[in-house]
Design goal:
The complex is a heterodimer of chains A (418) and B (223).
Chain A: H1 3-9, H2 14-25, H3 33-41, H4 45-69, H5 76-83, H6 86-118, H7 124-144, H8 147-174, H9 188-199, H10 227-253, H11 264-272, H12 276-307, H13 324-348, H14 351-382, H15 395-415
Helix pairs in contact in A: 2-8, 2-10, 2-12, 3-9, 3-10, 4-9, 4-10, 4-14, 4-15, 5-6, 5-14, 6-7, 6-12, 6-13, 6-14, 7-12, 7-13, 8-10, 8-12, 12-13, 13-14, 14-15
Chain B: E1 3-7, E2 13-17, H1 20-29, E3 32-39, E4 42-49, E5 54-58, E6 70-71, H2 78-91, H3 98-108, H4 112-136, H5 145-158, E7 162-167, E8 172-176, H6 181-197, E9 205-212, E10 215-222
Parallel strand pairs in B: 3-6
Antiparallel strand pairs in B: 1-2, 3-4, 4-5, 7-8, 8-10, 9-10
The chains are: A mainly alpha (418), B alpha+beta (223).
Chain lengths: 418, 223
């Protein structure tokens, strides 16, 4: 293999980086959550989603500024290491990696669960096996894909997810019941609930930063160290467009307090005529894409940290471009988490899933989202001399807002258990 | 050894002998060679052409990215000086034991011009050492005199000398009771050099100073 070929395989195109960001955010939740939002706030759930999105825009701007200042890969590992010191960078890098191990196990579990939904099976054994099989298959697949191929795969995957979402949204819009748009039963607590629920559906786009250094500097879209920054904002723009469309459809088929205890897929199936097995397939397909991207992120994160010798150098050793050690450790650790979660599921009900999900999200919030706001604000004060190819306006409002949002999400993440 | 005669910025007429070998080497690269000369309590940069005629004299120490300064009648050339400074640095790391380093340095190097160049070398070292983590992460720096003085030179000086005042309007820093003012000015120049290596565009800042005994008024201006 020529050196140039190998170099090209190790770069991600701008579309690839957008694909990674979008596919991480648009997971399986989007197939059920909008109905919950509509159940809480009806048509006003669109406003709730936009409000949540605006809050996340503050976080996105903090990420965009951080990655433009420190255009190396590693996300929080880099910007925390740059702003404070390498030890702190290493600590958050490891916490972030562990957080995504939990999330990858959860995503494999969801993929398995929706897969069983396609066949309307409730087998516990199959759920355990499928979770482990998905972690293994997607882990291997993520590990053997070159970075360039991974970018194309995630982009293609998310385009299909969006196509499925648009089809279902159109079907929902064709079957709306105008009475569902009534705001008679809307109250502030319902709106607040919709807004808080929709916040969770916007997490995850910071994984784009893990690949910052590998983004193709030659392609035509943006020059210099602003590619990932603009990628973050473009992804956020696309996400809100899709979420508004889905929310519009969902609030047309579910009015305030109409959902009750009904299963979201059954509600969509009943109204649109799309079989719930098909919806389960769409959800499984979505969760699988996210699982693949998250596992690829974990594998790459190890490589980035090993390159700097922040972790043992065995994680930067590759044979034919494949980082076998990184693949093995990622699959092994996520499989252990997945195994514990699925084995304990019958005895704990859904509680164990909530706990594991909460741990994963909490670790990512602490290691990536909270430091982004803090670093962006701190460096504005302490190091104005740093070049910021992407510079956020009104930083003393935007960055504290990002910090506040993270604090609020951390609070909600714990408060859900009480 | 050719001699140049010119009027210093302080008004005094002075003559200096030029060390022809290193001058001719510089002439291969440039048509006018900036030459650093110490005169009483200040330095001047004299621009000398190939006929050994003085084109201009500046009170400002300005050494651009691609030019090296020459020392008039040096006992050590620039390479020898760097080797000597490096040897002292290995014995006492200035980032950890600055005063021990400086006391050895000033016993071994006496000429003001050499002290300036040694300071320049150490300034670059200290800044690179301080900013190494963020440089490795691909950070680049703005070329802004006030920010360079306040965020880069100021904090490094704070650990080395007594700084009385940083005037943000005048972009001036006042160094009091410095053991070697020339060395301290050199450190500022070295920091500027290092920043210019990590700036997106060419540095257009010049270092100006007034020395009065052990006090140095240092300011940065955009050229």
């Amino acid at each position: 293999m020529s050196k140039e070929n190998s170099k090209k395989k190790n770069t991600i195109t701008f579309l690839g980086i957008i694909g990674i960001g979008l596919t991480t955010v648009i997971g399986s939740g989007i197939w059920r959550d909008p109905l919950q939002w509509a159940n809480s706030a009806g048509i006003m759930s669109i406003l709730a989603v936009i409000l949540s999105w605006l809050l996340f825009l503050a976080v996105g701007l903090a990420y965009a500024e951080c990655v433009s200042m420190f255009p190396k890969s590693g996300g929080p590992y880099s910007y925390v290491g740059g702003a404070f010191n390498k030890k702190w960078g290493k600590a958050v890098g490891i916490v972030y990696f562990i957080g995504y191990l939990f999330i990858s196990a959860l995503l494999a579990f969801l993929t398995a669960n929706f897969t069983l939904g396609i066949f309307q099976s409730n087998s516990q054994l199959l759920l355990i096996l499928l979770t482990l099989i998905y972690l293994f298959v997607f882990g291997i697949f993520a590990g053997i894909s070159s970075l360039r191929a991974m970018g194309f795969i995630t982009f293609g995957w998310v385009v299909l997810k969006i196509v499925f979402l648009v089809i279902v949204s159109i079907m929902m819009l064709l079957n709306i019941n105008p009475a569902n748009y009534s705001l008679h039963e809307l109250n502030f607590s319902g709106f607040r609930e919709a807004q808080q629920l929709s916040l969770w559906s916007l997490l995850g786009f910071e994984v784009m930063l893990i690949f910052a250094e590998e983004v193709d500097k030659e392609d035509k879209y943006f020059k210099g160290n602003v590619k990932v920054s603009y990628g973050v904002l473009i992804s956020l723009g696309l996400i809100i467009g899709i979420y508004v469309l889905v929310s519009l459809g969902a609030s047309g088929i579910v009015g305030i307090n109409n959902l009750g205890n009904a299963n979201a897929f059954e509600a969509i199936a009943l109204t649109t005529g799309i079989p719930s097995q098909i919806l389960s397939f769409f959800a499984a397909f979505s969760a699988a894409g996210t699982c693949y991207a998250v596992l690829a992120t974990c594998i790459h994160q190890l490589r980035v940290m090993a390159r700097d010798e922040s972790i043992p150098t065995i994680f930067k050793k590759a044979r034919n471009g494949i980082y076998t050690n990184n693949i093995i450790i990622t699959i092994s650790l996520s499989s252990i988490i997945g195994l514990i979660m699925t084995v304990l599921l019958p005895v704990s009900g859904g509680f164990i899933v909530s706990i594991f999900s909460s741990i994963g999200i909490g670790l990512v919030l602490i290691s990536a989202m909270l430091p982004a706001g803090i670093v962006a604000l701190y460096l504005r004060i302490k190091m104005p001399i740093l070049e910021r190819p992407f510079k956020t306006n009104i930083p003393y409002f935007v960055f504290p807002l990002a910090i506040f949002l993270t604090g609020f999400l951390l609070f909600l993440n714990i408060a859900q258990f009480f | 050894m050719p001699t140049i005669t010119f009027k210093c910025t302080c008004g005094e007429k002075i003559s200096y002998d030029i060390e022809s070998k290193s001058f001719e080497e510089e002439l291969d690269k440039l048509s006018v060679v900036p030459t650093l000369i110490s005169h009483k309590d200040h330095f001047i940069t004299v621009y000398v052409d190939k006929n050994y005629a003085v084109r201009s004299v500046e009170r400002i120490v300005l050494v651009k990215d691609d030019e090296s300064s020459l020392i008039v009648n040096p006992s050590l050339n620039e390479d020898q000086l760097h080797k000597k400074v490096e040897a002292i640095k290995e014995r006492r790391d200035p980032s950890k034991e600055f005063f021990s380093f400086l006391s050895i340095l000033i016993t071994e190097i006496k000429e003001p011009e050499s002290l300036f160049l040694a300071g320049r070398y150490i300034g670059t070292y200290l800044w690179n050492k301080k900013r190494e983590p963020i440089i490795k992460l691909g950070a680049t720096f703005k070329v802004d005199p006030l920010l360079v003085l306040k965020n880069e030179i100021g904090p490094i000086y704070k650990n080395l000398v007594k700084i009385e005042n940083i005037d943000s309007e005048e972009k001036t820093i006042v160094i009091r009771e410095s053991i070697s003012p020339q060395f301290m000015v050199g450190i500022a120049q070295g920091i500027l050099d290092a920043i210019s290596n990590h700036a997106d565009r060419n540095i257009n800042i010049v270092l100006e100073y007034v020395m009065s005994g052990s006090t140095v008024f240092l300011s940065l201006q955009e050229s």
